[in-house]
Amino acid sequence: MKNNSKILVIAMAVMIVIGGWGVYANHRTVRNSILQAEPALVHRAGYANTGQFTPPDFEKAAESSVASVVHIKTVTQYAKASGGRQQQNPFGDFFGNDDLFRRFFGEIGPAVKPETRASGSGVVISSDGYIVTNNHVVNGATEISVTMPDRKSYKAKVIGTDANTDLALIRIDAKNLPVMPVGNSDDVHLGEWVLAIGYPLNLDVTVTQGIISAKSRSIGINQEGQAPVESFLQTDAAVNPGNSGGALVNTDGELIGINSAIASPTGAYAGYAYAIPSNLMKKVIGDIMKYGSVQRGYLGISMAPENLDDAKKKELGINDDIRGVWVMETDPTGAAAAAGIKKGDAITRVDGKTIDNNSQLSEQIATHKPGDRVAITFTRNKEEKTVNVVLKNKLGTFASQKEAMLESLGAAFTTVKKTDAAKLGIPGGVQVSAIKDGVISDQTTMKPGFVITKVNDAPVKSVDELRAAIARQDNSFMIEGIYPGSDQVYYYGINDFRK
C-alpha cells in the first residue's frame, strides 16, 4: 500500500509538471530567434569525446531545419522601377566585373523585358512571419511571394534592407511558424560539418553537406553599399542559383550563416560558397526590427590593403612579423583619432578578440552601434597599447578619398585669384581649366573656363573647399557657376556619383 501511495504521488507530480508546461506553452510570447536569447545546448551533435569516432548526425539537423527555410519568388517590373526606361537586369552582372565570384539568385526563364521573375530562399526567424534573406534577392522587386515547405504561399513585404551586408528582412502575414535557432558564428571552426539548405535551380527544398573551409573571407563582390562588410564563412557545401538567402546550418540545426555568393566561372556550383556569419546577421536584422534601419558604429580609419608592395609597406612602417590590420589613414574627427590611434598603427585585437585581417576587423566593428565603447589593442613602434574607443555614427572621409572623388569628375581645377574674382563680381571660385574623361564630360555640357561658385548651395572659393564639398555629397548634386564675360548663372546636375 505504501508503494502504491508513492507511485501515486510521483505520478501526480509528473502530471503537474506536464500540465504546468501545457499552460505555459499556451500563453508564451511570440518566438523570435533574433531578439530573444536561445537556450544553451547541452552538447554539440557529432562532437562528443567518447574515445571513438562518431559520425556527424546530419539527419536530425536537416529534419529540424528544413521547415524554417522558405522559397522566395520575385517579380521585377522595370517599367515601374525605372520610370519607363529599359534597364539591365540588376542580377545579370552579379554586382561585379570578376566573373569568378557570383551572386546566385536564380532567374526563372529568360530575362524578358520589361519583367523579370526570379527565385531565391529565406529563413524564418520569428514565429509571426519575419524572414531573413539577401538584399539582392528582394532589391527592386515589385512583387514578392513566399512559399513554405508545406506548400502554403503568402505575399511578402520588405521591412528593411542593408546593402552594406547584403541582408534584408521581409514579413508575411502568418502565425506559429517554425523558427530556426541562431547559433554563434564566432564559435564555428575550420573543418566543422555544415548543411546548406535552400531552393536551388527552382527545385523543392534541398539539403547539401560540406565543411567550413575558411572564415573571414572577403571576395570583393559587394559593391552596392557605401561601406561594404564582407567577412564570409566559406564552405564546400553545394549551392546553386536559387540558394541565395538560404541557411547554412551546423549539426545542431542552428543557423550559422546566410548563403550569399559562390565562386564559379559558370554561375553554377564549382566548389566554394560564401555565407554571411549569423552574428553579423543577428545585429543587422535586430536593428531593422527594433529601429527600422541599421545602427552602425564606425571606427573612422582607412585600412591598408593586404596586398601592398614592399615600397608602400616601408612608407607605412608595416612589419610583416606583426599580424593585424594596419591603419592607412584616420578621419581627424573620427572615433579612432579621438582615442589616439594614428596612421601606421597595427590593430591586433577588438574587445580581446584576435584580429588577423581587414575582414575580421570590419565584422567585429559592424556588430556594434554608435556610442558603443570597444577596447582596441594596437601595436606602435613594437609597443602594445589598448585604448577604449567610442564608436561614431559616421563613416568618415579621408584625404585620399576626397582626392579620388575630385579626380572622378574628370577635370583640372585652379583656385580663382582674389583680384580675378573681384573683376568677375564674385567672392571667389574654382575655374575648370581642362576637361577630360569623367563624370563631367559624361553627364554635362560644361566647357573649360567655367568658374564653379557653389556645390549644392555651399560656396566654394578654393580647390580645397571644392574637394571637401564634393566629398560631402551623396549620389546627386548641383554644380553652380558662371562663364567669364557672361552675367548668366549656369547649373549642371550630377547623378549616380557614388555608384
Largest sheet: 6 strands, antiparallel, barrel
Strand line-up of the largest beta sheet: 1-4-5-8-7-6
CATH topology title of the largest domain: Thrombin, subunit H
Mean pLDDT rating: 82
- In whole angstroms, the N-to-C terminal distance is 84 Å
Radius of gyration, CA atoms, in whole angstroms: 27 Å
The helix count comes to: 12
The structure class reads alpha+beta
β-sheet strand percentage: 25-35%
How many domain regions?
A: 4
Please estimate the helix content.
Answer: 10-25%
User: What's the CATH C level of the largest domain?
Assistant: Mainly Beta
Flag low-confidence runs. 1-28, 40-48, 79-99
Q: What general outline do the C-alpha atoms trace?
A: globular
Would you count the extended β strands for me?
26
Supply the CATH architecture of the largest domain.
Beta Barrel
Overview of this structure, please?
The chain is of the alpha+beta class. It is built from twelve helices and 26 strands. It is 21% helix and 30% strand. The termini are far apart. The model is unreliable at 1-28, 40-48 and 79-99 (pLDDT under 50). A hairpin with a 5-residue loop joins β4 (115-124) and β5 (130-133). It folds into four domains: 1-30; 61-291, Thrombin, subunit H; 301-390, PDZ domain (Pdz3 Domain, Roll); 399-494, Pdz3 Domain (Roll), CATH 2.30.42. It has helices spanning 2-27, 58-65, 78-81, 135-138, 278-291, 310-316, 335-338, 358-366, 399-408, 418-424, 439-443, 463-471; strands at residues 69-77, 101-103, 106-107, 115-124, 130-133, 143-147, 153-162, 167-172, 193-198, 206-217, 232-235, 247-250, 255-263, 272-277, 301-303, 325-330, 346-350, 353-354, 373-380, 383-390, 411-415, 430-435, 451-455, 458-459, 477-482, 489-494. A six-stranded antiparallel β-barrel has the order 1-4-5-8-7-6. Strands 9-10-11-14-13-12 form a six-stranded antiparallel beta barrel.
